[in-house]
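Hi there,

I know you've been waiting on this one. I reran it after we fixed the sequence typo, so this is the corrected version. Both the input and the resulting structure follow.
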Amino acid sequence: MRRIVLLLLAVVLLAGCASQPIPTNPPAPTNPPAPTNPPAPTNPPAPTNPPAPTNPPAPTNPPAPTNPPAPTKAQPTAASASSSAVKLPEVNPLEVKGNIVMAGSSTVFPLAERMAERFQDEGYSGNITIDSIGSGAGFERFCKTGETDISNASRAIKSSEVEACKAIGREPIEFRVGTDALAVVVSKENTFITSATKDELAAIFSDAAVKWSDVNPAWPQENILRFIPGTDSGTFDYFVEEIFDKDEKPHLQAANTQLSEDDNVLVQGVLGSPYAIGYFGYAYYAENAGRLKVLAIEGVEPTKENVDNGSYPLARPLFIYSDAKIMHEKPQVAAFINFFLTHVNEEITEVGYFPASEEALNAARQAWLKAMGG
């Protein structure tokens, strides 16, 4: 019996020992190599996805700021600079009363007449008297006898004339209103002349020559057909003054000469023959530039630039003059000068002249404001 008990104890002990090896399972802790799964953190190479930040080249889209060339559309702001023209108080011609007396330059006369007509067309009911007597005679009436309210001039006033004005209590104020430029033209069919000197013009437009070859042997032995403005034209007077030293006889005595107050008639005359030549305001050339050829004078072409800088020999500034006292005592004079300076560029090319520069016109408007105490 005792033996049996001992045997049972031995069996239990053996069984206990046999179940012990289970702890050898703890090598399962070698399962922690699952922590070697953390190599999943090697997935972080996904951060190599950040090359998506290489997408930021989209920031290279900021070249859209190169769109700011749209600011170059801000060149309208340059245009708005031209809209920085000096503004004068608005004039209603219907409200203007009293008469106005002007005299002077025959060159300014057509422009002054056009502005007077427009002033009256828009409601002015008074009379505007304009005499075409030349710049010098105009200053005489304005500065010596004091007969006129406004003096028209195709040249600046002389110091002696200023002194004469002061002697009768007048301080002349200069208003630039435009620029005169004559276009001397031939038909595009004319193949032998592109430029002329003043001396050649004096021969071409006078009784000193009948044929083109009389002026230049290289030119055709064909009659010169001349088309010139009428003697009442300021353009005619200016040409005579510049080319013939104020002596109109050689000009009027030239053979084959047709005069007309209508510049369109002159255009048609020149277009009628390759041996025809004429002169008139530049605006009429510009309207017919496809059919006419304008001559350079002394090698200088009548472009706006050459007119503005004074290099074109047949270009000169156009003025009107008045006085602050007159403008205050006769509000109609101040109103008309205001109207003139405000609207002259709407009419001047139709008359046949060039506009004054914006700077010159602004200076004239400033002179008006100063005279009126503005």
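Quick highlight: The first helix runs from residue 2 to 19.

Best,
R. S.
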